[in-house]
Automatic annotation (TrEMBL):
Domain of life: Bacteria
InterPro entries xrefs: MazG-like_dom (IPR004518), NTP-PPase_MazG-like_C (IPR048011), NTP-PPase_MazG-like_N (IPR048015), NTP_PyrPHydrolase_MazG (IPR011551)
Organism: Sulfitobacter alexandrii
Keyword vocabulary terms for this entry: Hydrolase
Example GO molecular function: ATP diphosphatase activity
Protein's GO biological process: dATP catabolic process; dGTP catabolic process; dTTP catabolic process; dUTP catabolic process; response to stress; TTP catabolic process; UTP catabolic process
Name this polypeptide is given: Nucleoside triphosphate pyrophosphohydrolase
Pfam families: MazG
Broad EC category: hydrolase
Family according to the record: Belongs to the nucleoside triphosphate pyrophosphohydrolase family.
EC number: 3.6.1.8
UniProt xrefs under Gene3D superfamilies: MazG-like (1.10.287.1080)
Length: 273
């Protein structure tokens, strides 16, 4: 029966669960898969989540299908290890998230009215989450913001949590003034203090930049990801133009590359017009 499921393309999630059980079988499974634990698999889980985001950014729906499968495999991997250790199972994880979604949407699955604004629904959602944190003995406003998040995204979430309890600048003008202050302190650290102080001031500047993004409705991790993609695309254009002239970046001057960079930018603007 199990063998039939493994080779049945229409067996759905049960097929994937059985494949993972077989891979982890201590006697007949894959040696590499058997050796893995939560700590060794976690980096792959993070990587797969970013590859999902990358496929979405590029609007590559065929690749997104594959990346979502890779991410689903990570969940199956963790739940199989959890089941082996007696912590939880795939079914308990599914039950937990299903219960959570039903509880957090009383306006869809309960008696509450759907006749409310998106802002009110967001406020209700946060109130339900706050109650859940209290039940988990997470008393502080910042409790539960995962330490393992990318630092820029965690800064954004920490500031968002603090803002919910009133710890926030009232407008973007004050945030921009704080950016100028932090930039000045970074210059001072560079010129007259040590490396550790410079690192601290640089971190402070990044933290306030994330806050400005929140005030402007910009998710800083996504914005920086877009800037990275733009830089990669434009630098590839510079390399292509150099290659057409029989040159490489390391054989060129900064002035040459700057001129080509401007040309690539100009071509992008013309194409977008």
């Amino acid at each position: 029966m199990a063998q039939d499921i493994i080779h049945d393309p229409d067996a759905g999630i049960e097929r994937l669960l059985e494949i993972m059980r077989r891979l982890r079988d201590p006697e007949t499974g894959c040696p590499w898969d058997i050796e893995q634990d939560f700590d060794t698999i976690a980096p792959y889980t993070i990587e797969e989540a970013y590859e999902v985001a990358d496929a979405i950014d590029r609007r590559d729906w065929r690749e997104l299908e594959g990346e979502l499968g890779d991410l689903l495999l990570q969940t199956v991997y963790h739940t199989e290890m959890g089941s082996e250790a007696g912590h939880f199972s795939f079914q308990s994880v599914v039950r937990n998230i299903s219960d959570k979604m039903v509880a957090r949407h009383p306006h869809v699955f309960g008696d509450e009215s759907r006749e409310k604004s998106a802002e009110q629904q967001t406020a209700d959602w946060e109130a339900i989450k706050a109650q859940e944190r209290a039940e988990k003995a997470q008393r502080g406003a910042l409790d539960g913001v995962a330490v393992g998040l990318p630092a820029l995204l965690r800064a954004y979430k920490l500031q968002k949590r603090a803002a919910r309890v009133g710890f926030d600048w009232p407008d973007t003008g004050e945030v921009i003034a704080k950016i100028a202050e932090e930039a000045s302190e970074l210059v001072e650290a560079r010129d007259s203090l040590g490396h550790d102080e410079m690192v601290e001031e640089f971190g402070d500047l990044l933290f306030v930049m994330a806050n400005l993004g929140r005030h402007l409705g910009i998710e800083p991790e996504a914005a920086l990801r877009g800037a990275n993609a733009k830089f990669t695309r434009r630098f590839a254009g510079v390399e292509a133009r150099l290659a057409a002239a029989g040159k490489r970046p390391e054989d060129s001057t900064l002035e040459e590359m700057d001129a080509l960079w401007d040309a690539v930018k100009a071509d992008e603007r013309t194409s977008a017009a």
